[in-house]
Amino acid sequence: MRNYATQMEAARKGIITPEMKTVAEKESIDVSRLMSLVAKGEVCIPANVNHTALSAEGIGSGLRTKINVNLGISGDAKDYDLEMQKVDMAIKFGAEAIMDLSNYGKTNKFREELIARSPAMIGTVPMYDAIGYLDKDLLEISAQDFLKVVRAHAEEGVDFMTIHAGINRRAVEAFRREGRKMNIVSRGGSLLFAWMMMTGNENPFFEFYDDVLEILREYDVTISLGDALRPGCLADATDAGQVSELIELGDLTRRAWEKDVQVMVEGPGHMPMDQIAANMKLQKRICHNAPFYVLGPLVTDIAPGYDHITSAIGGAIAAASGADFLCYVTPAEHLRLPDADDVREGIMASKIAAHAADIAKGIPHAMDRDNAMAAARHKLDWDEMFSIAIDPEKAKRFYEQTPPSERHTCSMCGKMCAVRTTNMILEGKEVKFCSER
């Protein structure tokens, strides 16, 4: 029986947990250093006591940038088998977290299977599941009903939960006073806003925040403070609503830490490139350097069908500027539920953004694979290049689609390959083209 409730409490007591040892080994960081970061809240290790299949990961300062994959069913797409295929793909390609965002019917059976088999962290948004779980319309749901869903997810083994506790009356007032082009684009935030407006009550997750924390502490669930007022278009970025909610999230972060509950803070969705770095610094300052989880950000609004690219651009800038955790975006964003191919493309775009940012941040060993790729390319060793590539199957498929006449080149340059030419000259060989025909 462990003598601590959460990873944060253990760290503050000077206890090195098995999860800390796992993370320290993965990150090549001294475990005592990691423990001090967890104690301060600058790193979180989401690890529900009931998630026995978990391979722990750390999120926060000085660690590799992690990525999350969203999946789950909706009323128009109810194929659980397809969603489980996406789970397998996410695990195969190294996603550190999977969020089940199902919002239709009784979702617990799928979630229990997901938690039982997934080594990746599992996250949920209880607000999404409330209507299906409780079988009540929004206006019929009480504040205590919402807490029942939080407890149910915690008992199932969910490692982190998005809780939109910052959209309280003060934040709503700032949002309504300024006005927006896109209003509220957070699904959970919009539901809470509607509930607050229809009932006249305060946000239940804010009003009963201490009760929420007690549930999360019991199962060592990390709270991911949702940004209900995140910008949904470039024109709304860094406005009064977003910043007002961020100020509330900073106070909620401090209150969670007082209860030894680990915290992540969620960040903007759509944002011009020139505002991203400043937003990362603003969040870290206001939220006491808590781990920052960004949803994109998308750097343009005009690319439906290509939003995995717009998100990867923003995500790379965000992570290089201090964000710790990237939520992937697929080509289907804004259009439909993603299929398996969309998920693959989204994962790859997000992994590339995270890796590029880690190199920029100087994360230990971040460039090791890049250096290995350079060595393989220098040797023109294609099999080694494929094995090092972030997506070996795609790299090999592309190479073999137009086979080169000579194995040591590709069909782009053929024998005029710059690497081949330079290697031959440096080896004292003569380079010929015409006489070889």
Keywords summarizing the entry:
two-stranded antiparallel ribbon; 19 helices; 2 domains; eight-stranded parallel barrel; single chain; 10 strands; 437 residues; alpha/beta; 50% helix; TIM Barrel
Q: What's the count of strands?
A: 10
Cα-to-Cα separation, first versus last residue: 75 Å
Q: How many domains make up the 3D coordinates?
A: 2
Order of helices and strands: HHHEEEHEHEHHEHHHHEHEHEHEHHHHH
Q: Unreliable segments (pLDDT under 50, ≥5 consecutive)? A: none
| Backbone shape | globular
Helix content: 40-55%
Number of helices: 19
Largest sheet: 8 strands, parallel, barrel
The first-level CATH class of the largest domain is given as Alpha Beta
- Our estimate of the beta-strand percent is 5-15%
Strand ordering within the main sheet: 3-4-5-6-7-8-9-10
**Which second-level CATH architecture of the largest domain applies?**
Alpha-Beta Barrel
- The CATH superfamily of the largest domain is known as Radical SAM ThiC family, central domain
| Rounded radius of gyration (Å) | 23 Å
On the 0-100 scale, what is the average pLDDT?
94
Structure class:
alpha/beta
